[in-house]
């Protein structure tokens, strides 16, 4: 297991309290909290990710990470985060940001010199360059994912080995205790799947993500050290099941996706976790719509809304209302669809909240427009659908190639059906430009449908060029 931090190394850590003798407590990082201002943790995390991209860094920052900084759990950020924070707040030192000096954070082993594969072995994590000052060899950074690296990369103990990617669930059954390292590793797997899917699509990820999911559920059979750890493990395993289910869903493996979503729903019920339940129903609704079961999609969304009512997240209710609208659209009920869309807009307008689940980071205005486009498309109002799809593509962060390709594919299809073949072909060409970065069966299928619709218009030079290029890519 990961070694405990030295409480004497940081003056901000009190070793004992009268209420709980012997238990470590940390002083909140009030300076960092002040810098966040009125933004929610999720909004601030998104700003951190944008800043990182601007300077060529890659950080998987989310609301949970921001919370860990603010409650003092992360006493000093890793070098990548330090560079991002210094870029965001020029002139401020680590101390100004509320962090401890790096040299006071002790008990951390040196980072391996070469790149180490991530938990999922999907892509290597960027590694720090060798420090110029040899003293850094003895005072490495307190990274927010230190326990993850120990648990899933170095494999230094029996417990660590039990949760490594290369070993199966049977080994995990031999683990006698499950603690912070294992739970954090499961949570990190969820984040990395989402990040990689956002950037590259599902097709190349699904098979490699299945083993960590099996391991996570095997860990549920081992005894957790504390009830709170067990609760986090249930939630983490359920969220991992949804993430793997989405990879199956987006790559056209609907039956497997259905199984993973059902597993997550069962886990949510066992754990009494309404947030996980709402997430499972949200994805089940989306899947049912894609499977041509609009009534099931509508009912799953409504069940998700009931689960989400007490969570305090208007944005979650907005997304579920959009899922319900998609079900009504599939049933051809325009009035019910419009009523659901009205509710979705009302919830969305209330803005972000601290209670927004971290998995909802994708649900920004661009996604709101995209889901509306799908509703109008299902209702046969192609011109209106195309207007929403165009706004979705225009609003989408270009760094997330998968969603940008999806939105443009929707636009190409809607324009083709609306009787604008040249414009459709131009949008289709923009999708093809992204396929070197994105692997998604869903997007390929959408382009195939658009190509069939455009085939009678091959006399148009724009259409002919798109069809020829798309045919070459499909082969």
TrEMBL record:
Which residue positions does the secretion signal occupy? none
Origin organism of this chain?
A: Streptomyces xanthochromogenes
Q: Where is the composition biased (Basic and acidic residues)?
A: 130-144
Q: Which InterPro entries match?
A: TPR-like_helical_dom_sf (IPR011990)
Q: Look up the domain of life of the source.
A: Bacteria
> Which intervals of the chain are annotated as region Disordered?
1-26, 108-144
Full protein name? Tetratricopeptide repeat protein
């Amino acid at each position: 297991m990961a070694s405990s931090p030295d409480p004497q190394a940081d003056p901000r850590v009190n070793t004992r309290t009268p209420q709980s003798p012997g238990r470590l407590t940390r002083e909140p990082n009030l300076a960092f909290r002040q810098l966040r201002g009125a933004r929610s943790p999720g909004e601030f995390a998104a700003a951190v990710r944008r800043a990182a991209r601007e300077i060529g860094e890659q950080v998987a920052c989310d609301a949970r990470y921001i919370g860990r900084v603010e409650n003092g759990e992360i006493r000093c950020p890793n070098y990548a985060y330090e560079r991002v924070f210094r870029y965001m707040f020029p002139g401020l030192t680590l101390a100004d940001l509320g962090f401890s000096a790096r040299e006071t954070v002790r008990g951390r082993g040196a980072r391996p010199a070469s790149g180490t594969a991530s938990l999922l072995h999907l892509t290597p994590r960027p590694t720090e360059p060798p420090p110029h000052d040899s003293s850094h060899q003895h005072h490495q950074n307190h990274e927010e994912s230190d326990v993850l690296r120990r648990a899933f990369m170095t494999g230094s103990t029996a417990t660590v080995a039990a949760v490594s990617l290369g070993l199966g669930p049977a080994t995990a059954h031999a683990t006698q205790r499950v603690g912070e390292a294992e739970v954090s590793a499961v949570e990190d797997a969820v984040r990395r799947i989402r990040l990689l899917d956002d950037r590259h699509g599902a097709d190349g990820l699904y098979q490699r993500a299945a083993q960590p999911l099996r391991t996570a559920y095997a860990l549920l059979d081992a005894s957790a050290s504390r009830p709170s750890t067990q609760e986090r493990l249930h939630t983490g395993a359920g969220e991992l099941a949804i993430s793997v289910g989405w990879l199956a869903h987006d790559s056209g493996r609907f039956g497997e996706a259905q199984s993973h979503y059902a597993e997550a729903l069962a886990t949510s019920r066992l754990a009494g976790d309404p947030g996980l339940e709402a997430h499972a129903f949200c994805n089940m609704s989306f899947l049912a719509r894609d499977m041509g079961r609009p009534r099931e999609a509508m009912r799953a969304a409504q069940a998700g809304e009931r689960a989400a009512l007490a969570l305090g997240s208007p944005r979650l209710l907005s997304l579920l209302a959009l899922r319900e609208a998609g079900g009504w659209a599939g049933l051809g009920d325009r009035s019910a669809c419009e009523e659901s869309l009205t509710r979705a807009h009302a919830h969305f307008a209330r803005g972000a909240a601290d209670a927004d689940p971290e998995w909802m980071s994708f649900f920004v205005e661009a996604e709101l427009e995209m889901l509306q486009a799908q509703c109008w498309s299902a209702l046969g109002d192609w011109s209106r659908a195309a207007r929403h799809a165009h706004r979705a593509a225009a609003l989408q962060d270009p760094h997330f190639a998968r969603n940008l390709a999806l939105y443009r594919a929707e636009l190409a299809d809607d324009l083709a059906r609306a009787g604008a073949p040249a414009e459709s072909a131009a949008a289709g060409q923009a999708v093809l430009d992204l396929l070197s970065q994105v692997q998604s069966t869903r997007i390929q299928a959408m382009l195939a449908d658009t190509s069939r619709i455009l085939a009678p218009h091959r006399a148009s030079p724009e259409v002919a060029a798109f069809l020829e290029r798309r045919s070459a890519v499909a082969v």
